[in-house]
Give the backbone structure.
Amino acid sequence: MSWADEAIETLRQGAYTRIQARGDAMTGKVNDGDMVTLESCDPRKLAVGDIVLVKVKGTVYLHQITAINTKEQRFQIGNTRGEIKGWIGANAIYGKATRVKPPPKPQPSSK
């Protein structure tokens, strides 16, 4: 079971989960190593710019909503580098990031 499978299962049960972000696709909003708290969400309350755990074309991403088609209840998913992954339905959104916490800074050693 992958980190994504575990997070998705926890979110489906209505609980919150935390994941450690990896990669640079969301730099500026979520940086490599950040601890991200995810919670289940009502897709009708999502907005452009929200960071979500989502599946697009078979791949799970921690990306942002870049556009919403409210009539069809579809969401466009992309990253902070301008790359668009595609449009998905509400059922492909597993949770919303409610907190992004950078890793602790190393303390200087005293000699």
Summary: The chain has one domain: 3-101.
